[in-house]
Amino acid sequence: MEIVLDAMGGDHAPFETVKGAILALNEIPKLKMILVGHKDKIEQELIKYKYDKDRVEIIHTDEVIEMNEKKSPAMAVREKKNASMNIALQFVKEGKAYASVSAGNTGALMSASLLKLGRIKGVLRPAITTVFPSKKGKMILLDVGANADCKSEYLKQFAMMGSFYAKMILKKDNPKIGILNIGTEEGKGNSLTNEAYQLLNETKDINFIGNTEPGDIFKGDVDVIVTDGFTGNIVLKTSEGIAKLIFDIIKESLKDKFISKIGALLMKPIFINLKERMDYSEYGGALFLGLDGISIKSHGSSDAKAIKNGIKIAYFFAENNFVGNLKEIMKGEKPNG
Fold this sequence. Notes:
alpha/beta; globular
C-alpha cells in the first residue's frame, strides 16, 4: 500500500521526515513510501539507513511552501503548484497513493487538501481532528483550526464525523459526544452553542450528552468534544503550552537540591509514563476530517517518531476504508454548501 510523504514539510525536514519514513517501513511490511521533495537532499538522508529500495520512490521537486510562508495559504498553494505538499496530495487525488502525510504549513496544507481532494458529498466543512490524552485514556477534539467561524450545522456534522472517528480510533462502540461550552447546563453559551445543542439533541445515531466545560476536557468522561475552529485552536495551543510549562517546572525543581535528584531517580518510571501520555508524537497527526481522501497533518516540529506514527495512522485509515465508510454515514446530509 502506497503512502505519500511530503518529505520537505516541517521544521526538521528532510532528516526527520526521511528517518520517520524508514521507521514506518520497518514496522509495516506491506507499506511502500513515496517521498516528495528535493531528490539530492532526500538521498543524502536515505544513505544513512538500510531499507528495501523497492519500497521507496522519490518524486523530485525543489519547490516548498515554507513554514513561515509570507503569502496567504491559498495564494501559496496556487502559485507554488509544484510544492511538495501539492504534489503529494495530487498523488492521492489520482489514486497513485492511498494517503498523504505532511508536517508542513497548516493553513497551506488545509487549502491544498481541500483543493485537491474536495469534500465528501454532504459535508459542509471539513474539520481538523486531533487526539488528546485524558485521565481515562484518549479523547478527540474537533475542529482545531480549519473553520474559525462556524454555523450550528457544521458542529452537528463534526459530531457525526467525530463519532465515527472515535469508533475507529478509540474503539468505542457508542462514543459520548459533548459541545465545548462555558457551562454544562442547557442554554449556556452563545447562539452557536445553543443552536448546536438543539441540533445534536435531535440527531440520531450519536450519543450526545450535552455541554462540556473546558476544565472537564481531560477527565475522560467525554470521548468527542466539538467546537468551532477558533476556540479549538486556542484549546490546542494552550494545552501544548501548559504541558511544556509543567515539564519545565519539574525539570527546574529537580535541579534545586540533592534530595530532589534522588527523588527524581526513584520517580523516573512515572515521569517516563507521564511524558508518553502527553507527547504529541504518540498520536501521529491530525486528520482533515470530511475530505474525499486521507490527508494527515503532523505537528510542525515533528521528529522521526511523530512522522512514523503519522504514516501508521494514515495506513490504518486507508486499510480500513475510512473515507468510504464515512461517505455512507454522511450520505443523507444536504448537498455541500
